[in-house]
Every structure is written in structure tokens, then in C-alpha cells.
Specification:
The complex is a heterodimer of chains A (361) and B (386). With 361 residues, chain A is α+β, with helices and mostly antiparallel strands. Chain A is built from ten helices and ten strands. In chain A, a hairpin with a 2-residue loop joins strand 2 and strand 3. Chain B has 386 residues and is of the alpha+beta class. Chain B has three domains: 116 residues, Orthogonal Bundle (Butyryl-Coa Dehydrogenase, subunit A, domain 1), CATH 1.10.540.10; 109 residues, Butyryl-CoA Dehydrogenase, subunit A, domain 2; 140 residues, Butyryl-CoA Dehydrogenase, subunit A, domain 3 (Up-down Bundle), CATH 1.20.140. Chain B is built from 13 helices and eight strands. Classes of the chains: A alpha+beta (361), B alpha+beta (386).
């Protein structure tokens, strides 16, 4: 790990130590302000769009750290929204943001005064706490980014298993000005695929942080808790569980790092991100199961912090596509080849590798 | 708590150029019928002529300096060559141990004379090594070895027996862990040493131990007053434990801990590409295996980069072997689900034959080079170390 990255992670951890509050309604406004002050909320957004211009490796490490701290802030969503705005050549505003793909349930129709939006955005992360939801949709058959004020919609509150807001927005002919909608180059499915990859990579980074937290809690508990006159860690069967868990954590951490590296260096990071999200689900499943088994009943309670890690692992493994959906995409890449193409596909050395629209940046 | 971590690594462009050279060579070897893909070919594929052809191309001893016949290409370039060979199921067993760990051990601990005498032959694909660690009463508990080396004029007299020594019946040398002084009460790892034993020396008797398929790879090597000259002591007398454990990151983290069943997976995917749609569940099962393989390869690659930097990431290497060898077995289950075939070692159908090879060799994957249970003990001790 580079020392620059280590230093930034230390700074993020110190900021959490000083400013993190017990999050009412799943939102830590004081921590958000401190993080914005530290300059880590728009890390991988280009400088010309108002971001910090950092690489994805640095960004992923910060997302993992905030996830390990169970920080109740829309860190990943703000980066995703910033990325969408930057791809449309727009400036990214200060403050927490959210991002959402429009799907089939929403239309953006031009009219004389700008655009009219009608439909539903389901399970928008943090919608009730942000000033702007950056939405990726289509208008007149072309991909477009719309900056939406959630106050202009009917908001139906919801949450994921970790208590993070996942609100549904109902848009009944919401009027946006021409400046609030920007068309993107290329085709809609390409923009959607790029967003899905960036979102999946962000969740994998967060999953790796929550996994690390679950391992640290389990290791500490195994050292403290005494049974039969010995700490749990003295039992070989407990050691075997801890080691199996550490293996899955290291796998997940490597997956997140490899996905970030591919986004920084590869013309087609799709394979790396697809593989990373594919392995993240089963790894999260195994990590949660072992962490709870090692903690016994106390880990199953609201008063113990283990749930801050495990409920995130359970929730995030499904978001932006479950591991099964991403696995199927990986299989389709393999099955698209002729005989003998599996190894070249896995090593990224196919003559024409990657499906169209798979580039992530 | 110790935090294990691995940084992601990109291969340099020159390594990708090398990859294509290896692929072209292998296509010629397979196309001409000189070699045939097998599962677990780094145990079962003993082909001295093939090893010499690799040596002639500079693809053995790639981490050895040029003065010892190597190419000094480094661990990442070696990684590319070895993963291409394993993915193709090529017969690499003859030179495998020598290239992977005996040569590096000689480079690290050997005398100038030992290096000059032995390394060039390894790099040519002509000199082969066996591993003399396990014994009848010392398996996972390696420190309890009883093979003794007693001081005599000009060297050592060795008596004892080594077990499960793959390829000893073909190999030229066996780096052998022996007790040169009694174990101390406080430190049972003291008093161990490594000797380079010439397997053609008088007093060496090699008996086959057949696998459950009848194949002959394992041996018992009985040593009855075998004379080993001082010049064949590896490193320092009494440092054997330290020297052996320093090989482990090399031994445990390579692509052979992930790819032993890859030829089966490749054959299954080839068959599936010509079949009707797999369906959602089938694709999810196939993709889960492929994703795991992709990330495990990144882990192995990350460790190769750490080795190249002179580090010894033993705990991360133990993780790769534990996860990788369980993956090798999981491939069998995925193929059974997705591309059913009856396993048959004699079948003309590649899928049936490779499935039989994978199943019948699978018990070894999670045993050799440290059982999964021993590895997990090492990982856990790293986690809970004060």
C-alpha cells in the first residue's frame, strides 16, 4: 500500500473518531460535513468537474474504510452521482448526492420549457437526505443525466437491512429546466452498463471494508471471551473458523483492489468488476455466517456492533445486481467464445475482449 | 490484530508478449500430438523430453541469475509461463519441484559450488529434484522427523525413511530434512538440517507407493547409512527449520494451487458453448466458479509480485493455498452439475477422462504442501498473535 494512501486512510479514520455520531434516521450530518472538509467526498471525480481527481485505488480504499466504520453517509452514491455529472460535462455541486438509473418505469419528455419527468424511481439510496438525485435515463432515444430535487417528488421512505435509506420517489409530471438535463454521447445501454459497473465496483469496495470489520470484531471477541476456562481462540475449531473467514476477507479485499486497478489502468475493466461482484456475494455470506457463529447470541443483538458489519454485507451483496446476476454475465462472456477461448477470456487476452459498452470510465 | 492485505498487480507488457510465445509453442506441441492435456499435470505429467524443450527456450529457471543458466526474468514472467503450461495441462512434473523451490533454495542458502554445479542443469530441464520432508511418523507434524544424520569424516551418514516423495524414482536429488542434533526441550525446531542427497548414492532404496488409481508418483525413500559429503549440506547445520519454512511462500502460492483441474473446466466450457442455453441457474453456477478463479489468480499474482520484491508473505500464501485447493475441488462439482459425464480414465472423450483424473487426484489437493487444517492453524495464529 502506498504511503499516500495510508496517510489518507489514517486521516479518514481520525475524522470518524472525532466526528462520527450515533446516526438517527441513518444519517450522520456532522460526519458528512467533516468528510467534505477533508476533501474525500468527490475523490475520483475529475478536477475540472469540481472533484479531487484521485484514482480509483485511492477511492476504493476510502470507501472500504468508511464502510468498516459503518459511516452513515452516502459516500459511494455521491461519487456515482459526481461521475454521472462529470460524464455529462457538468460541475458537481457540494453536499451529499444520490444516483439512480431510471429503468423502464420513468420517462423524460422534452416540452417547451425543458423536460417533464413521469414515473417511479425505486429504492433510491439516501434520497430523503440529499438535495439532488442524479438520474440516468433516456430522452428522445438518447442517454441523459437529470438532476432531480427529491422534494419535488412524492417520497415513500424505505431502508435496506442495515437501516440505510432506500426511498422510492414517485414523479408526477415533475418539471425540470433545460439546464437540469444533459444528454450524453453514445447509446443508452452503454451508459447504463457503465453506471452498473461503477456502482458494482463501489459496492465491492464497501463490502470489503465491512468484511474487514466483521473479522476484526470476531478476532477480538475470540481473544476476550472465556469458556471452559480458556479464551475461545485457544480452541482449534475456533481457529479454523477464524482462518476460513480471514481467507474470504482477503479474497474480497483483493477483488476490490483488482477492480479498482482495472478501472485505473484497463480499457475494459468490465471483466475485473464482474468477477469482483460475483465473488463478493458468496464471500459475504460465508463471512456473516462465521462471524455470527463465533459471537454466539450477543452478536445477534442490537447492542453489539457486529450487526453494523453483517447487515451491510447482507444488504450490499444484493444491491446493483446480486452476485448471481453478475455471475451469469461472466458465464455469458465465457460461453460467447469458440473452443479454447476460456483461458484467453480469463487472462484478458482475447483478440477482441469484452462486450460492447463494457468500459467503465 | 495483524491485517493481511494484497495489492492488485498488473502484468508488464513484456510478460504478455511472452505469454503469446508460450501459447504458440504449446499449440504446436498439442497439435503435433507430442503432448496431451491432463489434470494435475504438475504431479502426473513426467516428460523429460518436454522439460528439455522448455529449458531450451529459457522457460525454466526464470528466476535464476544468468550466471547459473537462468534468464533472470523474474517471478512475474515465471508466473505467466507456469500458468500457461498448467492451463494447457502440459506435462511439467519432471522439472517442477526443482524450478519452483529447490533452485530458489539453492540460490538462497546454497554454496557457490552447489549453485554452479546444479542450477544450470535445472534450467536446461535436465536435473530433477524431490522433496524429502514427510516421514512415516512425521506428516503434518514435520518437526518430529527422525531421519538422522551423524557426523563422520568428511560428511554425514544418513539413516531413515522419507515418504510421499513424488517423482523420487526419476529425480536426481532430494533436498532432505534431517535431524543433525537432538531436539531441545525448549525448541523442537532446533537441530534440523537440510542435505542435498544424490538419489543414485549407495544405500538409497526407492519403493513405489501407488495412488488409488494405480499410478506411480509417490515413493518411500529408505536411506540406509547413506554417505553425504560436507559439500552437500544446504545452508547451515541446525538451520533446517528456518530454511524449510522460508520455502513455503514459493511452495504454497503459485498457480498450481488453483489450476490443477483447469483442463477439466476448459473442456466443460468448450462443450457448453455448443449446447442450448444453460439457463439462469446454470449460468450463475458457471459464473461463480469463473469469478472465483479470476480473483484467486489475482491473489496468486499479487504474491508473485511480493516474492519478486524479496518479501516472504507466508500467511497470505497459506490463504491462497487453502482457498485455491478447495477451488480445484469445487471445479469438479460445478462440471458434474453443468456438463455431466461418467468419469473414465480410459475414455476417448476428453471430458470423461479429465473428470476421472480430477476426481481421482482431488484428495491430494488439500493435503500436499501442508493440509488445509495446518494452513488454517498458521493463518489463525497470524490473526490472534498478540
Amino acid at each position: 500500500m502506498t504511503s499516500e494512501r495510508d496517510d489518507l486512510i489514517d486521516a479518514v479514520n481520525r475524522t470518524c473518531d472525532r466526528h462520527q455520531q450515533p446516526a438517527a434516521d441513518g444519517w450522520d450530518e456532522a460526519l458528512w460535513a467533516a468528510l467534505e472538509n477533508l476533501g474525500v467526498t468527490l475523490l475520483c471525480v475529475p478536477e475540472e468537474n469540481g472533484g479531487a481527481g484521485a484514482d480509483h485505488a485511492m477511492t476504493a480504499a476510502v470507501l472500504a474504510t468508511l464502510a468498516a466504520r459503518a459511516a452513515a453517509v452516502p459516500a459511494a452514491e455521491t461519487l456515482l452521482a459526481g461521475g454521472l455529472l462529470a460524464s455529462a460535462g457538468q460541475q458537481v455541486p457540494a453536499g451529499p448526492l444520490s444516483a439512480a438509473p431510471a429503468g423502464q418505469e420513468l420517462t423524460i419528455r422534452p416540452d417547451g420549457r425543458g423536460y417533464v419527468l413521469t414515473g417511479t424511481l425505486a429504492r433510491v439510496p439516501w434520497a430523503r437526505h440529499v438535495r439532488t438525485v442524479v438520474m440516468l435515463g433516456e430522452t428522445s432515444g438518447r442517454p441523459a443525466v437529470a438532476s432531480l430535487d427529491p422534494q419535488a417528488c412524492v417520497l415513500q421512505p424505505g431502508a435496506n437491512l442495515a437501516g440505510e435509506p432506500r426511498d422510492t420517489l414517485v414523479l408526477d409530471a415533475v418539471q425540470l429546466s433545460g439546464g437540469q438535463v444533459a444528454e450524453l454521447p453514445g447509446r443508452g445501454e452503454q451508459a447504463t452498463a457503465r453506471f452498473a459497473l461503477r456502482a458494482a465496483a463501489a459496492r465491492v469496495a464497501q463490502l470489503s471494508g465491512a468484511a474487514q470489520r466483521a473479522l476484526e470484531l470476531s478476532t477480538a471477541y475470540s481473544c476476550e471471551r472465556q469458556q471452559f476456562g480458556r479464551p475461545l481462540r485457544a480452541f482449534q475449531v475456533v481457529q479454523q473458523h477464524l482462518a476460513a473467514m480471514a481467507g474470504e476477507v482477503l479474497l474480497l479485499q483483493t477483488a476490490a483492489a483488482a477492480a479498482a486497478l482495472a478501472m485505473d489502468t484497463s480499457a475494459d475493466p468490465g471483466l475485473a468488476i464482474t468477477a469482483a461482484k460475483t465473488v463478493a456475494g458468496p464471500a459475504a455470506t460465508a463471512i456473516c455466517a462465521i462471524a455470527h457463529q463465533l459471537h454466539g447470541a450477543i452478536g445477534f443483538t442490537d447492542e453489539h456492533p457486529l450487526h453494523l458489519a453483517t447487515t451491510r454485507l447482507w444488504a450490499w451483496r444484493e444491491e446493483y445486481g446480486s452476485d448471481h446476476e453478475w455471475a451469469a454475465r461472466l458465464a455469458e462472456r465465457a460461453l460467447a467464445g469458440n473452443g479454447g477461448a476460456l483461458w484467453p477470456m480469463l487472462t484478458g487476452t482475447l483478440p477482441h475482449s469484452g462486450p460492447p459498452g463494457s468500459a467503465a470510465s | 490484530m495483524a491485517r493481511f492485505s494484497l495489492d492488485a498487480v498488473s502484468l508488464p507488457g513484456s510478460a504478455e508478449g511472452l505469454r503469446q510465445d508460450v501459447r504458440d509453442f504449446l499449440a504446436g506441441e498439442i497439435g503435433s500430438g507430442r503432448i496431451r492435456p491432463h489434470c494435475d499435470s504438475w504431479l502426473s505429467g513426467w516428460d523429460a523430453a518436454f522439460s528439455r524443450r522448455l529449458g531450451a527456450r529459457g522457460w525454466i529457471g526464470m528466476t535464476f541469475p544468468r550466471q547459473y543458466g537462468g534468464t533472470d526474468a523474474g517471478a512475474l514472467h515465471r508466473f505467466v509461463v507456469t500458468e500457461e503450461l498448467l492451463a494447457a495441462g502440459a506435462p511439467v512434473a519432471a522439472h517442477w519441484i526443482a524450478d519452483r523451490q529447490s533452485g530458489p533454495a539453492l540460490l538462497r542458502f546454497g554454496t557457490e559450488q552447489q549453485r554452479a554445479e546444479i542450477l544450470p542443469g535445472i534450467a536446461r530441464g535436465e536435473l530433477y529434484f524431490a522433496i524429502g520432508m514427510s516421514e512415516p511418523d512425521a506428516g503434518s507434524d514435520l518437526a518430529s522427523v527422525r531421519t538422522r544424520a551423524s557426523r563422520v569424516d568428511g560428511g554425514w551418514l544418513v539413516s531413515g525413511a522419507k515418504l510421499w516423495t513424488s517423482g523420487a524414482h526419476h529425480a536426481h536429488f532430494m533436498i532432505t530434512l534431517v535431524r543433525t542434533a537432538p531436539a531441545a526441550e525448549a525448541d523442537r525446531h532446533a537441530g534440523l538440517s537440510q542435505l542435498i542427497i544424490d538419489l543414485a548414492a549407495p544405500g538409497v532404496q526407492i519403493r513405489p507407493i501407488r495412488l488409488l488409481t494405480g499410478e506411480h508418483h509417490f515413493n518411500e525413500v529408505v536411506l540406509a547409512d547413506v554417505f553425504v559429503p560436507d559439500s552437500r549440506l544446504l545452508g547451515r547445520a541446525g538451520d533446517g527449520w528456518h530454511q524449510v519454512t522460508s520455502e513455503l511462500a514459493f511452495e504454497r502460492s503459485g498457480p498450481e494451487r488453483i489450476l490443477s483441474t483447469f483442463p477439466l473446466l476448459a473442456a466443460a466450457v468448450d462443450q457448453l458453448t455448443s449446447q442450448p442455453d444453460l439457463g439462469r441457474a446454470g449460468k450463475a453456477a458457471l459464473g461463480a466458479i469463473l469469478g472465483r478463479l479470476w480473483v484467486l489468480r489475482q491473489m496468486s499474482l499479487a504474491i508473485a509480485a511480493r516474492l519478486q520484491a524479496g518479501e516472504a508473505p507466508n500467511i497470505e500464501a497459506a490463504v491462497v493455498k487453502d482457498l485455491g485447493t478447495r477451488f480445484e475441488t469445487a471445479v469438479v462439482e460445478a462440471v458434474r452439475l453443468l456438463a455431466p459425464a461418467e468419469p473414465d480414465l480410459a475414455s476417448a472423450a476428453p471430458l470423461s477422462r479429465l473428470l476421472a483424473e480430477a476426481i481421482s487426484h482431488s484428495p491430494g489437493f488439500t493435503l500436499r504442501g501442508g493440509t488445509s487444517e495446518i494452513l488454517r492453524g498458521i493463518i489463525a495464529k497470524g490473526l490472534i498473535a498478540p
